[in-house]
Amino acid sequence: MFYSSVASLGRYCVFMTQVFRIPDKWREFFKSLLKEISKLGVDSIPLVIIISLFIGAVICIQMVLNIVSPLIPSYSTGLATREILILEFSSTMMCLILAGKVGSNISSEIGTMRVTEQIDAMEIMGINSANFIVLPKIIGFVLFIPILGIFSMFFGLVGGGIIAQFTSMISMEDYVYGIQSFFNEWYIWYSLIKCVVFAYIITSVAAYYGYYVKGGALEVGKASTNAVVSSSILILLADVVLTKLLLQ
User: Fold this and answer.
1) Staple 152 to which of 52, 180, 182, 200, CB 3.0 to 4.6 Å?
2) pLDDT tens digits, one per residue of 232-244
């Protein structure tokens, strides 16, 4: 088990050295980059918006139901909703969800190219297949993930605002005042930094598992599952490390 893990880590590092090289044709790289931004980033916006709206609403409801002490001001609901969304949900939880969508997409796509010998054909033609296929995916998703993070924060707060507007659980004035109270700008940057790191983990791990698939369609499915599980574990580990480094 230990030997297998060390071997996988070594092969991953070698794989990354192949990926992060200067592209042979910049024109083709930028064409692929725009395509990956659209496929991995823009196509994820509806999912991020829907999930953030519901999670923001649920957090707001739970805060109202649990903050019942007369010693705690009513605007604390908005403050707590904002902090939960910015510090954890819009970065860590959102990226865990995107690991299932984006990670499985990348792993299955590259894995299919491997089993259908498209990657072998590229290597026969002298093309750095790892750089040509994987680099645009990593760069594209890393560049776009801050936008998804901002969308998640905004629509999560909108979800809480919907509860305040259309129910009697909390007034809109108290909710808005809570959102504005004791605001720390660094928390936004902290969340976006985590998003960038998590985006790299999602794309690179998924690409690694897809690139080294051996066998047929069944192995592609297994690689996709392994990619999602591994990237999720690494995201949680990186979350602990980044929180210690950035918030201490």
Assistant:
1) 52
2) 999 999 999 999 9
